[in-house]
Protein backbone atom coordinates (compact mmCIF):
# COMPACT_ATOMS: atom_id res chain seq x y z
CA UNK A 1 0.00 0.00 0.00
CA UNK A 2 2.87 2.38 0.84
CA UNK A 3 4.45 1.67 -2.52
CA UNK A 4 1.19 2.44 -4.37
CA UNK A 5 0.79 5.64 -2.37
CA UNK A 6 4.30 6.67 -3.33
CA UNK A 7 3.40 6.01 -6.97
CA UNK A 8 0.29 8.19 -6.86
CA UNK A 9 1.91 11.13 -5.05
CA UNK A 10 3.90 12.47 -8.06
CA UNK A 11 0.75 12.48 -10.20
CA UNK A 12 -1.15 14.49 -7.58
CA UNK A 13 1.81 16.83 -7.05
CA UNK A 14 2.27 17.69 -10.73
CA UNK A 15 -1.49 17.99 -11.24
CA UNK A 16 -1.77 20.58 -8.47
CA UNK A 17 1.44 22.35 -9.43
CA UNK A 18 0.52 22.86 -13.08
CA UNK A 19 -3.28 23.04 -12.78
CA UNK A 20 -3.39 26.74 -13.47
CA UNK A 21 -0.27 27.00 -15.63
CA UNK A 22 -0.31 27.72 -19.38
CA UNK A 23 0.17 24.89 -21.87
CA UNK A 24 3.85 25.64 -22.52
CA UNK A 25 4.69 25.15 -18.83
CA UNK A 26 3.46 21.56 -18.63
CA UNK A 27 6.41 19.14 -18.54
CA UNK A 28 6.60 16.08 -20.73
CA UNK A 29 5.42 13.04 -18.83
CA UNK A 30 4.96 9.35 -19.52
CA UNK A 31 2.77 6.94 -17.64
CA UNK A 32 1.19 3.51 -17.76
CA UNK A 33 -1.90 2.13 -16.03
CA UNK A 34 -2.24 -0.28 -13.16
CA UNK A 35 -3.70 -3.47 -14.72
CA UNK A 36 -5.65 -4.42 -11.59
CA UNK A 37 -6.97 -1.13 -10.19
CA UNK A 38 -6.82 0.85 -13.47
CA UNK A 39 -5.20 4.08 -12.35
CA UNK A 40 -2.28 5.96 -13.87
CA UNK A 41 1.26 5.13 -12.78
CA UNK A 42 3.90 7.75 -13.68
CA UNK A 43 7.03 6.29 -15.26
CA UNK A 44 10.32 7.75 -16.53
CA UNK A 45 10.21 9.39 -19.95
CA UNK A 46 10.05 6.79 -22.70
CA UNK A 47 10.79 9.18 -25.58
CA UNK A 48 12.31 12.61 -26.13
CA UNK A 49 11.76 14.81 -29.19
CA UNK A 50 14.91 14.68 -31.29
CA UNK A 51 13.87 17.01 -34.10
CA UNK A 52 10.92 18.60 -35.85
CA UNK A 53 10.66 18.42 -39.66
CA UNK A 54 9.00 21.48 -41.18
CA UNK A 55 11.01 22.46 -44.27
CA UNK A 56 9.55 20.59 -47.26
CA UNK A 57 10.67 22.89 -50.04
CA UNK A 58 8.94 25.98 -51.49
CA UNK A 59 5.60 24.82 -50.10
CA UNK A 60 5.03 23.83 -46.47
CA UNK A 61 2.87 20.80 -45.77
CA UNK A 62 -0.85 21.45 -46.00
CA UNK A 63 -3.27 19.15 -44.12
CA UNK A 64 -1.06 16.11 -44.77
CA UNK A 65 -2.85 12.81 -44.07
CA UNK A 66 -0.38 9.96 -44.26
CA UNK A 67 3.25 9.11 -43.56
CA UNK A 68 5.26 6.07 -44.69
CA UNK A 69 8.85 4.92 -44.06
CA UNK A 70 10.33 2.54 -46.63
CA UNK A 71 12.94 -0.20 -46.19
CA UNK A 72 15.76 2.34 -46.62
CA UNK A 73 14.39 4.65 -43.95
CA UNK A 74 13.16 7.28 -46.41
CA UNK A 75 10.01 9.23 -45.56
CA UNK A 76 7.02 9.70 -47.85
CA UNK A 77 4.20 12.10 -47.02
CA UNK A 78 0.75 12.23 -48.61
CA UNK A 79 0.47 16.02 -48.63
CA UNK A 80 -3.29 16.12 -49.09
CA UNK A 81 -3.86 19.87 -49.24
CA UNK A 82 -1.09 20.39 -51.81
CA UNK A 83 -2.12 17.39 -53.97
CA UNK A 84 1.35 15.86 -53.94
CA UNK A 85 3.66 13.23 -52.47
CA UNK A 86 6.76 14.48 -50.67
CA UNK A 87 9.89 12.34 -50.28
CA UNK A 88 12.37 13.11 -47.48
CA UNK A 89 15.53 11.57 -46.09
CA UNK A 90 15.54 10.43 -42.42
CA UNK A 91 16.84 13.83 -41.36
CA UNK A 92 13.99 15.64 -43.09
CA UNK A 93 15.91 16.87 -46.14
CA UNK A 94 13.71 17.19 -49.23
CA UNK A 95 14.59 14.60 -51.90
CA UNK A 96 11.69 14.80 -54.34
CA UNK A 97 8.14 16.00 -54.88
CA UNK A 98 5.66 14.05 -56.99
CA UNK A 99 2.63 15.84 -58.38
CA UNK A 100 1.95 18.50 -60.99
CA UNK A 101 5.57 18.64 -62.20
CA UNK A 102 5.27 15.03 -63.39
CA UNK A 103 1.80 15.57 -64.83
CA UNK A 104 0.20 13.72 -61.93
CA UNK A 105 -3.09 15.42 -61.22
CA UNK A 106 -3.63 14.13 -57.70
CA UNK A 107 -6.80 15.22 -55.95
CA UNK A 108 -6.48 15.24 -52.15
CA UNK A 109 -4.39 12.02 -51.81
CA UNK A 110 -4.79 10.53 -48.33
CA UNK A 111 -2.59 7.43 -48.40
CA UNK A 112 0.86 6.30 -49.51
CA UNK A 113 2.53 2.86 -49.52
CA UNK A 114 6.04 2.07 -50.80
CA UNK A 115 7.20 -1.47 -51.63
CA UNK A 116 10.70 -2.93 -51.28
CA UNK A 117 11.66 -1.69 -54.74
CA UNK A 118 10.74 1.91 -54.00
CA UNK A 119 7.58 1.84 -56.10
CA UNK A 120 4.83 4.06 -54.69
CA UNK A 121 1.13 3.31 -54.45
CA UNK A 122 -0.89 6.46 -53.84
CA UNK A 123 -4.48 6.47 -52.58
CA UNK A 124 -5.71 9.29 -54.81
CA UNK A 125 -8.87 9.78 -52.82
CA UNK A 126 -10.45 12.67 -54.68
CA UNK A 127 -9.96 10.98 -58.06
CA UNK A 128 -11.25 7.62 -56.80
CA UNK A 129 -8.23 5.48 -57.73
CA UNK A 130 -4.91 3.98 -56.65
CA UNK A 131 -1.95 5.30 -58.67
CA UNK A 132 1.17 3.17 -59.05
CA UNK A 133 4.43 5.13 -59.55
CA UNK A 134 7.93 3.77 -60.05
CA UNK A 135 10.82 4.82 -57.80
CA UNK A 136 11.48 7.86 -60.00
CA UNK A 137 7.88 9.05 -59.87
CA UNK A 138 6.82 7.93 -63.36
CA UNK A 139 3.27 6.63 -63.60
CA UNK A 140 3.06 2.87 -64.14
CA UNK A 141 -0.64 2.05 -63.84
CA UNK A 142 -3.92 2.87 -62.14
CA UNK A 143 -6.32 0.80 -60.07
CA UNK A 144 -9.91 1.94 -60.20
CA UNK A 145 -13.10 0.60 -58.69
CA UNK A 146 -13.11 -3.16 -59.38
CA UNK A 147 -16.12 -4.76 -61.00
CA UNK A 148 -18.13 -6.82 -58.55
CA UNK A 149 -21.73 -7.15 -57.43
CA UNK A 150 -20.61 -7.19 -53.78
CA UNK A 151 -19.89 -3.47 -53.78
CA UNK A 152 -22.78 -1.01 -53.69
CA UNK A 153 -23.49 0.22 -57.19
CA UNK A 154 -24.28 3.78 -56.14
CA UNK A 155 -21.30 4.27 -53.78
CA UNK A 156 -18.31 6.28 -54.94
CA UNK A 157 -14.93 4.56 -54.78
CA UNK A 158 -12.89 6.71 -52.37
CA UNK A 159 -9.67 4.88 -51.44
CA UNK A 160 -8.17 6.47 -48.34
CA UNK A 161 -5.36 4.06 -47.38
CA UNK A 162 -3.59 1.21 -49.16
CA UNK A 163 -1.02 -1.49 -48.46
CA UNK A 164 0.25 -4.51 -50.41
CA UNK A 165 0.14 -7.80 -48.52
CA UNK A 166 2.44 -10.81 -48.77
CA UNK A 167 0.36 -12.25 -51.62
CA UNK A 168 0.77 -9.12 -53.72
CA UNK A 169 -2.84 -8.00 -53.30
CA UNK A 170 -3.72 -4.38 -52.71
CA UNK A 171 -5.65 -4.01 -49.46
CA UNK A 172 -7.66 -0.82 -49.77
CA UNK A 173 -9.55 1.13 -47.14
CA UNK A 174 -12.51 2.78 -48.86
CA UNK A 175 -14.09 5.47 -46.72
CA UNK A 176 -17.50 4.74 -48.30
CA UNK A 177 -17.40 0.97 -47.80
CA UNK A 178 -18.04 -0.46 -44.30
CA UNK A 179 -17.48 -4.09 -45.33
CA UNK A 180 -13.78 -4.27 -44.50
CA UNK A 181 -10.68 -3.87 -46.66
CA UNK A 182 -11.10 -4.38 -50.40
CA UNK A 183 -8.59 -6.81 -51.91
CA UNK A 184 -7.56 -6.08 -55.50
CA UNK A 185 -5.06 -8.12 -57.54
CA UNK A 186 -2.53 -6.88 -60.10
CA UNK A 187 -5.12 -7.04 -62.85
CA UNK A 188 -7.53 -4.74 -61.02
CA UNK A 189 -9.79 -7.71 -60.23
CA UNK A 190 -11.83 -7.86 -57.03
CA UNK A 191 -10.56 -10.60 -54.69
CA UNK A 192 -12.96 -10.15 -51.82
CA UNK A 193 -13.22 -8.37 -48.52
CA UNK A 194 -11.06 -8.98 -45.47
CA UNK A 195 -11.22 -7.94 -41.81
CA UNK A 196 -14.85 -6.85 -41.79
CA UNK A 197 -16.35 -5.43 -38.62
CA UNK A 198 -19.84 -6.35 -37.47
CA UNK A 199 -22.73 -4.44 -35.98
CA UNK A 200 -22.49 -5.19 -32.24
CA UNK A 201 -25.35 -7.02 -30.55
CA UNK A 202 -27.58 -4.86 -28.39
CA UNK A 203 -30.50 -5.88 -26.18
CA UNK A 204 -31.94 -2.41 -26.74
CA UNK A 205 -31.87 -2.91 -30.51
CA UNK A 206 -33.48 -6.33 -30.10
CA UNK A 207 -36.32 -4.87 -28.03
CA UNK A 208 -36.85 -2.08 -30.55
CA UNK A 209 -37.03 -4.63 -33.36
CA UNK A 210 -39.73 -6.54 -31.50
CA UNK A 211 -41.85 -3.43 -30.96
CA UNK A 212 -40.95 -1.25 -33.94
CA UNK A 213 -43.08 -0.46 -36.95
CA UNK A 214 -42.01 -1.75 -40.39
CA UNK A 215 -40.64 1.73 -41.23
CA UNK A 216 -38.56 1.81 -38.05
CA UNK A 217 -37.26 -1.70 -38.71
CA UNK A 218 -36.16 -0.59 -42.16
CA UNK A 219 -34.11 2.20 -40.59
CA UNK A 220 -32.53 -0.25 -38.15
CA UNK A 221 -31.53 -2.55 -41.00
CA UNK A 222 -29.42 0.29 -42.40
CA UNK A 223 -27.14 0.31 -39.35
CA UNK A 224 -23.51 -0.09 -40.40
CA UNK A 225 -20.65 -1.56 -38.39
CA UNK A 226 -17.91 0.67 -36.98
CA UNK A 227 -15.26 1.43 -39.61
CA UNK A 228 -11.53 1.02 -39.65
CA UNK A 229 -9.60 4.29 -39.74
CA UNK A 230 -6.37 2.92 -41.18
CA UNK A 231 -4.32 -0.22 -41.76
CA UNK A 232 -0.68 -1.21 -41.49
CA UNK A 233 1.29 -4.44 -41.83
CA UNK A 234 4.20 -5.85 -39.84
CA UNK A 235 7.19 -7.81 -41.14
CA UNK A 236 5.36 -11.14 -40.70
CA UNK A 237 2.35 -10.08 -42.75
CA UNK A 238 -0.13 -9.44 -39.94
CA UNK A 239 -2.44 -6.50 -40.60
CA UNK A 240 -3.24 -4.06 -37.81
CA UNK A 241 -6.22 -1.73 -37.93
CA UNK A 242 -7.69 0.87 -35.58
CA UNK A 243 -11.48 0.95 -35.38
CA UNK A 244 -13.28 4.19 -34.51
CA UNK A 245 -16.57 4.98 -32.78
CA UNK A 246 -16.60 1.84 -30.67
CA UNK A 247 -16.06 1.21 -26.97
CA UNK A 248 -14.04 -2.02 -27.28
CA UNK A 249 -11.64 -3.79 -29.63
CA UNK A 250 -10.43 -0.46 -31.02
CA UNK A 251 -7.15 -2.12 -32.07
CA UNK A 252 -7.17 -5.35 -34.04
CA UNK A 253 -4.50 -7.69 -35.35
CA UNK A 254 -5.61 -9.77 -38.34
CA UNK A 255 -4.10 -12.96 -39.70
CA UNK A 256 -4.20 -13.95 -43.37
CA UNK A 257 -7.81 -15.11 -42.99
CA UNK A 258 -8.92 -11.76 -41.64
CA UNK A 259 -9.47 -13.05 -38.10
CA UNK A 260 -8.66 -10.78 -35.18
CA UNK A 261 -6.20 -12.68 -32.97
CA UNK A 262 -6.14 -10.16 -30.13
CA UNK A 263 -8.18 -10.89 -27.03
CA UNK A 264 -11.78 -9.88 -27.70
CA UNK A 265 -13.83 -7.37 -25.75
CA UNK A 266 -10.69 -5.47 -24.78
CA UNK A 267 -10.75 -1.72 -24.24
CA UNK A 268 -7.78 0.25 -25.56
CA UNK A 269 -6.82 3.80 -24.75
CA UNK A 270 -8.60 5.84 -22.09
CA UNK A 271 -11.97 7.44 -21.60
CA UNK A 272 -11.89 11.17 -20.91
CA UNK A 273 -14.25 13.85 -19.55
CA UNK A 274 -11.83 16.74 -20.11
CA UNK A 275 -14.19 18.35 -22.63
CA UNK A 276 -17.15 18.17 -20.25
CA UNK A 277 -18.60 15.03 -21.83
CA UNK A 278 -17.41 11.46 -22.09
CA UNK A 279 -14.92 11.05 -24.93
CA UNK A 280 -13.79 7.68 -26.26
CA UNK A 281 -10.42 7.07 -27.93
CA UNK A 282 -10.26 7.83 -31.64
CA UNK A 283 -7.29 5.92 -33.01
CA UNK A 284 -6.38 7.13 -36.49
CA UNK A 285 -3.18 5.19 -37.19
CA UNK A 286 -0.94 2.40 -35.94
CA UNK A 287 2.79 1.77 -36.35
CA UNK A 288 4.44 -1.56 -35.51
CA UNK A 289 8.20 -1.77 -35.04
CA UNK A 290 10.52 -4.66 -35.89
CA UNK A 291 9.95 -6.25 -32.47
CA UNK A 292 6.17 -6.14 -32.72
CA UNK A 293 5.71 -3.16 -30.39
CA UNK A 294 2.46 -1.37 -31.30
CA UNK A 295 2.18 2.41 -31.32
CA UNK A 296 -1.43 3.62 -31.56
CA UNK A 297 -2.15 7.27 -32.33
CA UNK A 298 -5.23 8.69 -30.59
CA UNK A 299 -6.47 11.87 -32.28
CA UNK A 300 -8.97 12.54 -29.48
CA UNK A 301 -6.46 12.79 -26.64
CA UNK A 302 -3.50 13.56 -28.96
CA UNK A 303 -1.57 10.81 -27.19
CA UNK A 304 0.41 7.78 -28.28
CA UNK A 305 -0.51 4.51 -26.60
CA UNK A 306 2.21 1.91 -26.81
CA UNK A 307 1.36 -1.78 -26.43
CA UNK A 308 3.40 -4.97 -26.41
CA UNK A 309 2.90 -7.87 -28.79
CA UNK A 310 -0.05 -9.19 -26.76
CA UNK A 311 -1.86 -5.85 -26.63
CA UNK A 312 -0.84 -4.99 -23.04
CA UNK A 313 -0.16 -1.33 -22.30
CA UNK A 314 3.51 -0.35 -22.00
CA UNK A 315 3.41 3.45 -21.95
CA UNK A 316 1.43 6.57 -22.80
CA UNK A 317 2.97 9.87 -23.89
CA UNK A 318 2.21 13.00 -25.91
CA UNK A 319 -0.87 15.15 -25.49
CA UNK A 320 -2.62 18.27 -26.77
CA UNK A 321 -0.45 21.38 -27.01
CA UNK A 322 1.73 23.60 -29.14
CA UNK A 323 5.19 22.63 -27.89
CA UNK A 324 7.53 19.76 -28.69
CA UNK A 325 6.14 16.42 -27.63
CA UNK A 326 2.51 17.50 -28.03
CA UNK A 327 0.18 17.72 -31.02
CA UNK A 328 -2.58 19.85 -32.48
CA UNK A 329 -4.12 17.08 -34.60
CA UNK A 330 -1.87 14.06 -35.25
CA UNK A 331 -2.88 12.23 -38.41
CA UNK A 332 -0.24 9.53 -38.99
CA UNK A 333 2.52 7.66 -37.17
CA UNK A 334 5.51 5.60 -38.33
CA UNK A 335 8.51 3.94 -36.69
CA UNK A 336 11.94 3.23 -38.22
CA UNK A 337 14.45 0.45 -37.54
CA UNK A 338 16.25 2.57 -34.95
CA UNK A 339 13.06 2.69 -32.92
CA UNK A 340 12.43 6.36 -33.61
CA UNK A 341 8.78 7.37 -33.89
CA UNK A 342 7.69 9.89 -36.54
CA UNK A 343 4.37 11.66 -35.96
CA UNK A 344 2.70 13.74 -38.68
CA UNK A 345 0.64 16.63 -37.34
CA UNK A 346 -2.03 17.64 -39.85
CA UNK A 347 -2.82 21.02 -38.28
CA UNK A 348 0.71 22.08 -37.33
CA UNK A 349 2.04 20.87 -40.70
CA UNK A 350 5.14 19.22 -39.28
CA UNK A 351 6.66 15.87 -38.37
CA UNK A 352 8.03 15.30 -34.88
CA UNK A 353 10.74 12.68 -34.38
CA UNK A 354 10.68 10.89 -31.02
CA UNK A 355 13.87 9.17 -29.85
CA UNK A 356 13.58 6.25 -27.38
CA UNK A 357 15.23 6.56 -23.99
CA UNK A 358 17.25 3.79 -22.35
CA UNK A 359 14.21 2.95 -20.25
CA UNK A 360 12.09 2.46 -23.37
CA UNK A 361 14.75 0.37 -25.12
CA UNK A 362 15.00 -2.00 -22.15
CA UNK A 363 11.21 -2.43 -22.08
CA UNK A 364 11.12 -3.26 -25.79
CA UNK A 365 14.05 -5.68 -25.54
CA UNK A 366 12.51 -7.49 -22.58
CA UNK A 367 9.05 -7.54 -24.18
CA UNK A 368 10.43 -9.12 -27.37
CA UNK A 369 12.23 -11.86 -25.40
CA UNK A 370 9.20 -12.40 -23.19
CA UNK A 371 6.82 -12.66 -26.18
CA UNK A 372 9.05 -15.29 -27.80
CA UNK A 373 8.96 -17.41 -24.64
CA UNK A 374 12.54 -16.63 -23.63
CA UNK A 375 11.53 -15.69 -20.12
CA UNK A 376 14.86 -16.38 -18.44
CA UNK A 377 16.76 -14.28 -21.01
CA UNK A 378 14.22 -11.50 -20.46
CA UNK A 379 15.00 -11.55 -16.74
CA UNK A 380 18.12 -9.37 -17.08
CA UNK A 381 16.51 -6.45 -18.97
CA UNK A 382 13.43 -6.66 -16.74
CA UNK A 383 15.67 -6.29 -13.68
CA UNK A 384 17.34 -3.30 -15.33
CA UNK A 385 13.91 -1.76 -15.89
CA UNK A 386 13.11 -2.24 -12.20
CA UNK A 387 16.40 -0.62 -11.23
CA UNK A 388 15.18 2.50 -13.07
CA UNK A 389 11.56 2.25 -11.93
CA UNK A 390 10.72 -0.34 -9.28
CA UNK A 391 6.98 0.20 -9.73
CA UNK A 392 6.73 -0.70 -13.42
CA UNK A 393 4.03 -3.44 -13.45
CA UNK A 394 4.95 -5.31 -16.64
CA UNK A 395 8.53 -5.68 -15.45
CA UNK A 396 7.26 -7.42 -12.32
CA UNK A 397 5.11 -9.64 -14.51
CA UNK A 398 8.10 -10.49 -16.72
CA UNK A 399 10.22 -11.34 -13.68
CA UNK A 400 7.36 -13.42 -12.29
CA UNK A 401 7.11 -15.41 -15.52
CA UNK A 402 10.85 -16.15 -15.45
CA UNK A 403 10.67 -17.23 -11.79
CA UNK A 404 7.64 -19.36 -12.63
CA UNK A 405 9.61 -21.17 -15.35
CA UNK A 406 12.37 -21.78 -12.80
CA UNK A 407 9.77 -23.25 -10.40
CA UNK A 408 10.46 -20.59 -7.78
CA UNK A 409 6.80 -20.40 -6.88
CA UNK A 410 6.82 -18.21 -3.77
CA UNK A 411 9.03 -15.58 -5.40
CA UNK A 412 6.85 -15.70 -8.50
CA UNK A 413 3.75 -15.16 -6.35
CA UNK A 414 5.29 -12.04 -4.83
CA UNK A 415 6.14 -10.61 -8.29
CA UNK A 416 2.71 -11.45 -9.72
CA UNK A 417 1.17 -9.61 -6.75
CA UNK A 418 3.27 -6.51 -7.48
CA UNK A 419 2.25 -6.75 -11.15
CA UNK A 420 -1.45 -6.93 -10.27
CA UNK A 421 -1.72 -10.21 -12.18
CA UNK A 422 -4.38 -12.27 -10.40
CA UNK A 423 -4.36 -15.09 -12.94
CA UNK A 424 -0.58 -15.46 -12.70
CA UNK A 425 -0.69 -15.33 -8.91
CA UNK A 426 -3.34 -18.09 -8.79
CA UNK A 427 -1.31 -20.29 -11.13
CA UNK A 428 1.87 -19.82 -9.07
CA UNK A 429 -0.02 -20.46 -5.82
CA UNK A 430 -1.48 -23.67 -7.25
CA UNK A 431 1.99 -24.89 -8.21
CA UNK A 432 3.40 -23.88 -4.82
CA UNK A 433 0.63 -25.77 -3.00
CA UNK A 434 1.20 -28.86 -5.14
CA UNK A 435 4.97 -28.73 -4.61
CA UNK A 436 4.53 -28.24 -0.87
CA UNK A 437 2.23 -31.23 -0.52
CA UNK A 438 4.57 -33.36 -2.65
CA UNK A 439 7.70 -32.46 -0.69
CA UNK A 440 5.97 -32.94 2.67
CA UNK A 441 3.93 -35.97 1.67
CA UNK A 442 5.30 -38.23 4.44
CA UNK A 443 4.61 -35.71 7.13
CA UNK A 444 1.19 -34.96 5.68
CA UNK A 445 0.29 -38.67 5.74
CA UNK A 446 1.62 -38.99 9.29
CA UNK A 447 -0.33 -35.95 10.50
CA UNK A 448 -3.49 -37.21 8.80
CA UNK A 449 -2.98 -40.69 10.33
CA UNK A 450 -2.31 -39.35 13.84
CA UNK A 451 -5.27 -36.99 13.54
CA UNK A 452 -7.55 -39.81 12.40
CA UNK A 453 -6.37 -42.07 15.27
CA UNK A 454 -6.79 -39.24 17.80
CA UNK A 455 -10.31 -38.59 16.50
CA UNK A 456 -11.11 -42.33 16.71
CA UNK A 457 -9.76 -42.53 20.26
CA UNK A 458 -11.69 -39.44 21.32
CA UNK A 459 -14.94 -40.80 19.92
CA UNK A 460 -14.34 -44.16 21.63
CA UNK A 461 -13.62 -42.47 24.97
CA UNK A 462 -16.73 -40.31 24.68
CA UNK A 463 -18.85 -43.41 24.05
CA UNK A 464 -17.44 -45.13 27.16
CA UNK A 465 -18.07 -42.01 29.20
CA UNK A 466 -21.64 -41.82 27.95
CA UNK A 467 -22.24 -45.48 28.79
CA UNK A 468 -20.87 -45.00 32.30
CA UNK A 469 -23.05 -41.99 32.94
CA UNK A 470 -26.10 -43.87 31.63
CA UNK A 471 -25.45 -46.83 34.01
CA UNK A 472 -25.16 -44.49 37.00
CA UNK A 473 -28.49 -42.91 36.11
CA UNK A 474 -30.10 -46.32 35.84
CA UNK A 475 -30.62 -46.37 32.08
TrEMBL record:
TM annotation in the entry: 441-462
Signal peptide: 1-25
InterPro entries xrefs: 6-blade_b-propeller_TolB-like (IPR011042), NHL_repeat (IPR001258), TPR-like_helical_dom_sf (IPR011990)
Gene3D superfamilies: 2.40.10.500, Tetratricopeptide repeat domain, TolB, C-terminal domain
Keywords attached to this entry: Glycoprotein, Membrane, Repeat, Signal, Transmembrane, Transmembrane helix
Keyword Zinc-finger: no
Record carries keyword Transport: no
Matching Pfam families: TPR_11
Each NHL repeat, start to end: 50-91, 314-357
Top-rank lineage group of the source organism: Bacteria
Name of the protein: NHL repeat-containing protein
Protein source organism: Gordoniibacillus kamchatkensis
Organismal lineage: Bacteria, Bacillati, Bacillota, Bacilli, Bacillales
